[in-house]
Amino acid sequence: MEVDLCFAMDCTGSMSGHIEGAKNCIKEVAERMAKMEPAIKIRVGFCGYRDHCDNHNRLQIFDFTNSCDEFKNNVSTVSAMGGGDTPEDVLGGLNAAVHSMSWRNPKRVLFHICDCPPHGRRFHNSDDSYPDGDPNGLTAEHVLGEMRSAGIDYFFGKITYLTETMIRIFQGIIGEYPVFDLTTARPDDLVQKFIEAACSAIITAVTLRE
Q: Which long-range contacts (CB under 8 A, 24 or more apart) does 117-121 make?
């Protein structure tokens, strides 16, 4: 059984601990999957995003690899930085994950982790440099529709209450999907939560498409 697993992650300043969690968990995730019967082989990739004000640092993408060590080396170069107002370039990040990654395996998992919603009043009532929505014209309907057409299963890791409205809107577009609670008061818990959520997402995706 072969799976493509892409971490799509907000890489702005507030996300430092969660980026470290992703760096530290993937090797154990792959080892757990390999021990299953039948074994699940994973190609893993990373699509980091920030915000429009971050210009050339807005996206940071590492295509799929079947080497956990290569993945960890790639992601070790990612740092939490940038971001301006409360919302971030969520739709741009998800769009890049769908179209810039070389999805190949029949089982496709996109595990999205963020602490803030996309731009646009429909998603929040916070300060927003782009209250009318994505300045490049992306919509949740378009991005999630393209994701579905590509056969990619979407899973979300919730960190704060700020994404509650986003979760509801996304579910209204593509239907119910698993939401993992990654909120934690203790940093030591974070890696284990990542491992459990990523493994659960992979197993769920495999089961759904059997």
A: 117/86, 117/87, 117/88, 117/90, 117/162, 117/163, 117/165, 117/166, 118/87, 118/88, 118/89, 118/90, 118/91, 118/166, 119/87, 119/88, 119/89, 119/90, 119/91, 120/87
Q: Total domain count for the chain?
A: 1
Does residue 196 lie within any of the structural domains?
A: no
Quick count: other Cβ atoms within 10 Å of Cβ 78?
18
SS3 state at 181:
strand
- What residue numbers bound the domain in which 67 lies? 13-115+140-153+169-178
Q: Is residue 19 part of a domain?
A: yes
Any domain includes 91: yes
Structure tokens at 77: 């170069």
Q: Which of 7-16, 141-150, 178-187, 189-198 has the lowest mean pLDDT?
A: 178-187
Q: Are 98 and 150 in contact (CB under 8 A)?
A: yes
| Tokens encoding 68 | 């956990």
Domain presence at residue 89: yes
Note whether 12 and 117 are within 8 A (CB). no
Whether the per-residue pLDDT at 184 is higher than 70: the answer is: no
The CATH number of residue 47's host domain is: 3.40.50.410
Radius of gyration of the chain (CA): 16
For the chain, what percent of residues have pLDDT higher than 70?
96
pTM of the model: 0.92
